[in-house]
Each structure stands twice: as structure tokens, then as C-alpha cells.
Write a structure and sequence with these properties.
Strand content: 5-15%
Shape: globular
Largest sheet: 3 strands, antiparallel
Strand order of the largest sheet: 4-1-5
Distance between the termini: 71 Å
Length: 313
């Protein structure tokens, strides 16, 4: 995780909030699971909605405390106009419950044991609700950055054991010629004007640059997978030192050249094995000669259709 003390606290807070929510959902399901399935699900839906909102909002409060700590550690002394707590989208909670119910129905259709059906319902609701709570904590950090004139942006911070996809996102660098390039001091909007070339690791100034312009068709506010432990860290200085595992991930990705090859090499490295050899080229890739022949065939077909339509007219 990040060397920043406030970000370390945020990692711990996300883990604590999602663990508490997982435990609370487990207790809620245990209290109703002995009932007939339809009745149990109806009660569990209401409990899951209430618990997810409760723990997500508690997580946002802790996140704002950590945000203020990050500002203080960066030497920022102005008063933060803190954002209001984010309302948890009902559609996201409902989507998680619906996902669990579809999984249960699949097992019912397959004549699975009752214990298997019960476990799938609980596991899926827990996974979906944990993501909602963690997303809301990341979202409140982004909102705080957007309303904080002293913040330069935010970045995704993975753990050392993060998946390949999260590590690649954290290794993205930019060399903008604008606001995030050469700022005279934390929070200043006056550029030095000359020089630059500083690399900014995984730093985003806006949701658009982060690929996180909400909402999408699922009302998802940001893009993190289930069980993702990545935190969002506010940036108050152009001076950054990426974590050693982020630098190592960047080097490994440069050696492999693609997400799939990087994932295989990373997994092998973590198992203490040699990196697997590169996969062979796809034997079904269309050659230039084949592509030209296909284009000619399509052109002839279109010409024939146009001629036929002309005769019919």
C-alpha cells in the first residue's frame, strides 16, 4: 500500500467497513434462512439495503477524516469545503440482490442442495454490497478532490497483491502540459511555464481522464471490480515516488507487452516460477493477401446487388 499515512488509514478503513458489513449480512441471513425461500429473500432484501446504506455512509465519514489528514500531511492549512455524503444508488444494491437471486435459481433448477443455494445467496449479496460500500468511500474522495482548490487530482493505489488489471491502471503515467504538469506549489493554479516532463503515476484530474464519468447504464459511479481493495488517494503535490511494487509491475509489463502476458508472468512470479513463454501467434490472423481478396469479394457482391436492384426498379 501507499507510504502515505492517511492512505494507509484509508486502506484499513475500507477493509474494516467491508468486513463489518459482511459480518452483519451474514447474521441477517442466518436469522431468516430457515424460512421458506421466498419469505427469507423478502426479509433479506430489506435487511441488505438498510445495512449497505448504513455501513457505506459510515465509511464515507471515515474517508473524509482521512482526506483531511492527507491535506494536513501535505501542509495544506486552508479549510476544506467538505462534500455531502453520497447517496448509495438503490439500483446498485438491487442489482446485487438480483444477481444473488439469479444464482440461487440456477442452483434450484440444477436440483442443488439447500445449503449450496443458501451459501450462494449470501456470498453474492456480500460481494455486491461490499463493492457498493467500498465504491462509496472512493467516490467521496473524488468529490472532495473536485471541490478542493488545493488538490491536484487523485490516483488509484493498489496493494502489493493486487490483480494485474489494477496494477496496470496504477502504472499509467502522464506528462501533461497543463494543470498537473509543473505547479509552483501545492494548490497553486499558476504554472511555472517552462520545463516540466514530470511523470505522474496513475493521477487523474477528472473523472473523464480516469474513465469514470458516472453514471453508466448500471448506475456505477466508478470502475472497480468485486473484492477490489484499491484505494483512491488525493494528490496535493507534483512530487511523487511510486511504490516499489508499482515500479516492478511497470517493468514486468514493459517486458511482456500485453495484459494477458503480464497476468501470466505476474502469476508465475508470485508462485515462484519462471515466466511462461510467449503464446504463439494466432494462426488464423488474416494476411494482407487474404484481406485484399475478401475486400474484392465483398466489392463484387455489392456490385451484383446494386445491379440486381437496378433491374428490379
Amino acid at each position: 500500500m501507499s507510504e502515505n499515512a492517511a492512505t494507509q488509514s484509508q486502506f484499513v478503513a475500507q477493509l474494516a467497513i467491508t468486513a463489518a458489513l459482511t459480518q452483519a449480512l451474514g447474521a441477517a441471513w442466518e436469522s431468516v434462512s430457515a424460512r421458506p425461500l421466498d419469505e427469507a429473500l423478502a426479509s433479506f432484501r430489506a435487511a441488505a439495503r438498510a445495512l449497505t446504506v448504513q455501513w457505506a455512509q459510515a465509511g464515507q465519514v471515515i474517508t473524509l477524516d482521512n482526506y483531511r489528514a492527507a491535506r494536513s500531511q501535505a501542509g495544506v492549512t486552508t479549510v476544506l469545503q467538505q462534500p455531502r455524503l453520497v447517496a448509495v444508488p438503490e439500483s446498485k444494491i438491487g442489482a446485487g440482490i438480483a444477481w444473488a437471486e439469479r444464482g440461487a435459481q440456477d442452483l434450484i433448477d440444477a436440483k442443488a442442495e439447500a445449503d449450496q443455494i443458501s451459501a450462494r445467496i449470501l456470498n453474492r449479496v456480500q460481494a455486491a454490497s461490499d463493492k457498493v460500500a467500498a465504491d462509496s468511500m472512493r467516490e467521496i474522495t473524488m468529490l472532495a478532490v473536485e471541490g478542493d482548490e488545493m488538490a491536484l487530482g487523485y490516483r488509484r493505489v493498489p496493494r502489493p497483491d493486487a490483480c494485474a488489471w489494477c496494477l496496470i491502471l496504477a502504472t499509467r503515467t502522464t506528462q501533461r502540459a497543463g494543470f498537473a504538469r509543473d505547479v509552483a506549489r501545492p494548490g497553486s493554479r499558476n504554472l511555472r511555464g517552462v520545463g516540466g516532463g514530470l511523470e505522474h503515476w496513475g493521477v487523474y484530474k477528472s473523472r473523464a481522464s480516469a474513465g469514470q464519468v458516472p453514471p453508466n447504464d448500471k448506475d456505477e459511479i466508478n470502475r472497480f471490480h468485486d473484492h477490489c481493495h484499491c484505494a483512491v488517494e488525493p494528490i496535493f503535490s507534483v512530487v511523487q515516488q511510486p511504490e516499489p511494487w508499482v515500479l516492478a509491475a511497470r517493468d514486468l509489463y514493459d517486458q511482456t507487452g500485453s495484459l494477458n502476458a503480464f497476468r501470466r508472468a505476474l502469476n508465475a512470479q508470485r508462485r515462484g516460477e519462471d515466466a511462461p513463454p510467449p503464446t504463439a501467434p494466432n494462426p488464423f490472423v488474416v494476411s494482407p493477401a487474404m484481406a485484399e481478396a475478401q475486400a474484392a469479394a465483398i466489392s463484387d457482391l455489392l456490385a451484383g446487388l446494386n445491379a440486381a436492384m437496378g433491374r428490379a426498379a
